[in-house]
Each structure stands twice: as structure tokens, then as C-alpha cells.
């Protein structure tokens, strides 16, 4: 049973869990006028041609998130749904610049999300950690400023990542940001090889010294890169339905997941932006099971990969297995 398989989620943007119903509720609560006639009109916008077409809607909808309460309500709603999906541990991304750039204080978004996370074990039986992701299509100097402020606030984060529009925004631009994070003992991950070329995956590894790659599916185009990822057991946080909905692959049947597993890559399954792609972690597992005929041991192996790839102490892994 998919829902009873203990699951670990390593690639989940909290902003990507903002469901249309909650958008309407928060707009009402905060007196914000939305450019949609009603809920159905909003739902009709969820048709994407590529990463950028999705990001346009994702960023626009964030206008409804204003107060700490909004951020903690958003986070609690995700945790409740994740509990139903059988998630036991989640390492959650948030995009501070998507909020500070529209005048929301850094402390408002960080505190709102982390307050909900602080109750997650007792309320939902899900352990969590928070990773802040920097927007690669904004200046690296801004990312550096935000990271510096997060460090001075002693924000409860375990690591940093890199996301948003990939092509034309290579990892090399963010070397200084990641060096600062590493100097402060933060874990490092980056989106790479989603729409961008294998070269960006190499840069994330060599220059940013990340220990996980988010997506990474285009790594398959470079045999030497695949060998490196396999030999060094670098996890890839793959998001099957995200890739379909953003047209990185045409259909789930065309997804390279089976090829990735056959090459011996340390693949994990994740939901990315479930409210936008219509699929939480259980839905992603179910889709793979139905499409590729994965049996129970194969599904359990994918879950174990995520336990191995998580930023946890060994004693914390045991209860998840
Ligand atoms: C994202 Cl699917 C994806 N790719 C890059 N950046 C993102 N931010 C939120 N979802
Ligand atoms: Zn992502």
C-alpha cells in the first residue's frame, strides 16, 4: 500500500503547496484583489508550457501571503496532507526572496513557516527541517544579503539551495553565496539539470560543492557525469509529475526514471510543487507504480534512498526504515 510506505520528502517548495482554495481564503482575509473571477477561473490557469510559465503563476499567487499566520497556515496545510501521504520526514524549501522582494519582512516568512514546523512532530508525526532556496534569476548579491541576514537572525535553517529559472543562470554565479553557507556549516543543494544542461550539474558539484542535486534528470546526457554521480553516491531528488507538467518530458511513460535506476543513480522521488502539479508524494509513487509496474521492493528501495539522502544523523534514520 502506497500510503503506508514510510516516506521522506526532500524536494518540496512550501510555496508550491499553496492550493487554489487557500489562495482564495487568504485573499479574502487580507483584502487582496485577485486577477481571477473565481476559483474555477484560477484553476484554469494551471496549464504550463515550461518552467517559466509555471513560475509566473507561482510568484503571482504569493501576493496573498502577508502575515506570519498566513505562512504558518500554509505550512500546516501541507503537513496535514503530507501526513495522509505517509510522509515521516520532510526537508522543506522556502524562497525568502519571493517574499522580501514584495515587501514582506524576512522574519515574517521564516518565523511563520518555522512555527508550524516546530509543532510538526507532535501534531503530524513528521520530522522536518528547513532549507532556504535562492532565486538564480535575481542577483547573487541579493542572495548574499539575504543569507547574511538569515545568519545574523540565527534562523532555524539547515541548508541552502538554488532554484527558479535555470537556463541562463548557471551555478557559477553563486559561488560566493555557497562558500558563505558552507563556512557556517550549512548543507548545500541546488536545482540543476531540470531544464539546464549537464554542465550546470557539474558546476553545482565542483563550484558550489553541493551534496545533493535537485532534479538532475538531464545528467543522463553526459556519461562521465552519470559515472561521477554513481561513484560518489550523490542523490538526485527527482520529481516525476513536475517534469511532465512542465513539459521536461512529454508523458510519465517517457520519464527517464527507469534509465536512471538502471544506471545505478541514487534517485529519490519527490513532489516539488504539489498544489500546481496536482500530485503529492503518494500520487507520485502511485503514478510510477502504475506506469512502470514497480513492485513493492522497488518502491521500498526508492524510499530507502531518500532516507540515505536525508540530512539526518544515523540514529535519526533508523526509525524511518
Ligand atoms: C520550482 Cl519545479 C521548480 N524549478 C525551479 N524552481 C522552482 N521553484 C519552485 N518550483
Ligand atoms: Zn523544485
Automatic annotation (TrEMBL):
Broad class of enzyme this protein falls into: hydrolase
Cofactor dependency: Zn(2+)
EC number in record: 3.5.4.2
GO cellular component, one term: cytosol
Residues marked Important for catalytic activity (site): 215
GO molecular function list: adenine deaminase activity; zinc ion binding
GO BP annotations listed: adenine catabolic process; hypoxanthine salvage; nucleotide metabolic process
Residues bound to Zn(2+): 11, 13, 191, 272
Domain Adenosine deaminase: 6-321
Active site: 194 (proton donor)
Keywords, ordered alphabetically: Hydrolase, Metal-binding, Nucleotide metabolism, Zinc
Binding locations of substrate: 273
Catalytic activity: adenine + H2O + H(+) = hypoxanthine + NH4(+)
UniProt KW Coiled coil keyword: no
Cofactor note: Binds 1 zinc ion per subunit.
InterPro entries according to UniProt: A_deaminase_dom, ADE, Ado/ade_deaminase, Metal_Hydrolase
HAMAP family: Adenine_deaminase (MF_01962)
Free-text function comment from the UniProt entry: Catalyzes the hydrolytic deamination of adenine to hypoxanthine. Plays an important role in the purine salvage pathway and in nitrogen catabolism.
Protein family: Belongs to the metallo-dependent hydrolases superfamily. Adenosine and AMP deaminases family. Adenine deaminase type 2 subfamily.
Name by which UniProt lists this protein: Adenine deaminase
Source organism of the structure: Cryobacterium roopkundense
